[in-house]
């Protein structure tokens, strides 16, 4: 029970890494606010947690909407009387990404097929809408969620732990499309800056930079030409695909008092893919 009596807010907890983290935290005694754009998936996560004897509440949230973030943070206080931990796992890999919609991913891959041989043209053709949407969800969404939750943490005067989801793409240009790698790099710098700003308030801020983890987001790699698929799944020194639980366990460490002297750090659970 490493998170006994703690209250956690997790965005993007309707699927993948966010869901696994919500389940893992609940197993360790935390009450969890499960926030996601896909409210039905958030409900499903809560169902899994309560069926296993844990405590959780679901809320439909678009992380780019400040009012939604505010309602999310307030739900933690209203339902569970505290707010100790935030994990910002909501994210998109490209502007039209819709978690769990494989047909949509297949269409996206088909549309971009010519760019594999001509990446310079992809740069020329990149639209400002594509760039801004990815930055908005991944970067602004992370900031807005943190701001709303931080306000409650400061009001309540409890020590806090904030965990952002960056990626190896924060440092590795080949780990995603241009807007995605820019957004994750910015999330990582934001994490370091917030760590410095919030340390006097006893709030720790750390990032997780996963390698390639088997979720709806990486299902796209199995739809790509073999060469690209192999560049991802075939190059992991540990020889297996990362699983959401691998990231949930890293988040558990950063959320718990076991990481009490960590702030402004990034962990890279990636099976050895990125070793710099
Ligand atoms: N899967 C990987 O290999 C990998 C690697 C590195 C980083 N990440 C990051 O981890 C996080 C989780 O990714 P995942 O692989 O679990 O993907 P996922 O698609 O399984 O989960 C992402 C969740 O975020 C939600 N979401 C998307 N936009 C939202 C919005 N505007 N508001 C609220 N919720 C929204 C989706 O509905 C979905 O439930 C993302 O930030 C992703 O960039 C993933």
Describe the secondary-structure layout.
Layout: E1 7-11, H1 16-27, E2 31-36, H2 39-51, E3 55-60, H3 66-80, E4 85-88, H4 102-111, H5 119-125, H6 128-156, E5 160-165, H7 178-198, E6 203-208, H8 226-233, H9 244-255, E7 266-267
Parallel strand pairs: 1-2, 1-4, 2-3, 4-5, 5-6, 6-7
Helix pairs in contact: 1-2, 1-9, 3-6, 6-7
The site of nicotinamide-adenine-dinucleotide has 31 residues, from α1 and α6.
The assigned CATH architecture is 3-Layer(aba) Sandwich
Q: What low-confidence regions span 5 or more consecutive residues with pLDDT below 50? A: none
- Supply Rg: 18 Å
DSSP strand (E) fraction? 5-15%
Count of DSSP strands: 7
N-to-C SSE series? EHEHEHEHHHEHEHHE
CATH domain topology:
Rossmann fold
Q: Under the CATH scheme, which class? A: Alpha Beta
Count of helical segments? 9
Number of domains: 1
Which hetero ligands occur in this complex? nicotinamide-adenine-dinucleotide
Provide keyphrases for this structure:
single chain; 276 residues; alpha/beta; Rossmann fold; seven-stranded parallel β-sheet; 9 helices; binds nicotinamide-adenine-dinucleotide
Task: Describe what this molecule looks like in 3D.
The protein is an alpha/beta fold and 276 residues long. The chain has a single domain (7-267), classed as NAD(P)-binding Rossmann-like Domain (Rossmann fold, 3-Layer(aba) Sandwich), CATH 3.40.50.720. It is built from 9 helices and 7 strands; from the N terminus they run βαβαβαβαααβαβααβ. It has helices at 16-27, 39-51, 66-80, 102-111, 119-125, 128-156, 178-198, 226-233, 244-255; strands at residues 7-11, 31-36, 55-60, 85-88, 160-165, 203-208, 266-267. Helix 7 links the parallel strand 5 and strand 6 (203-208). The radius of gyration is 18 Å and the shape is globular. The mean pLDDT is 97. Bound molecules: nicotinamide-adenine-dinucleotide. Nicotinamide-adenine-dinucleotide binds next to helix 1 and helix 6.
């Amino acid at each position: 029970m490493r998170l006994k009596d703690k209250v956690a807010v997790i965005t993007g907890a309707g699927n993948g890494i966010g869901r696994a983290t919500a389940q893992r935290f609940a197993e360790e005694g935390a009450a969890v606010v499960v926030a996601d754009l896909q409210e039905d998936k958030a409900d499903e996560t809560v169902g899994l947690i309560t069926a296993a004897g844990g405590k959780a509440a679901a809320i439909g949230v678009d992380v780019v909407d400040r009012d939604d973030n505010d309602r999310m943070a307030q739900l933690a206080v209203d339902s569970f009387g505290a707010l100790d931990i935030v994990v910002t796992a909501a994210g998109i890999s490209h502007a039209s990404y819709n978690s769990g919609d494989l047909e949509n991913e297949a269409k996206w891959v088909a549309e971009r097929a010519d760019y594999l041989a001509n990446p310079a043209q992809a740069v020329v053709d990149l639209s400002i809408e594509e760039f801004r949407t990815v930055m908005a969800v991944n970067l602004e969404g992370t900031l807005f969620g943190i701001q709303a939750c931080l306000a409650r943490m400061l009001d309540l005067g409890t020590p806090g732990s904030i965990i952002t989801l960056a990626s190896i793409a924060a440092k590795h240009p080949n780990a995603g499309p241009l807007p995605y790698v820019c957004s994750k790099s910015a999330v990582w710098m934001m994490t370091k800056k917030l760590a410095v700003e919030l340390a006097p308030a006893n709030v720790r801020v750390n990032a997780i930079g996963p390698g390639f983890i088997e979720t709806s987001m990486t299902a796209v790699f199995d739809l790509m030409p073999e060469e690209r698929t192999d560049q991802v799944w075939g190059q992991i020194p540990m020889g297996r695909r990362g699983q959401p639980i691998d990231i949930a366990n890293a988040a558990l460490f950063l959320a718990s008092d076991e990481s009490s002297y960590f702030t402004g750090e990034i962990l890279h659970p990636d099976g050895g893919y990125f070793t710099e």
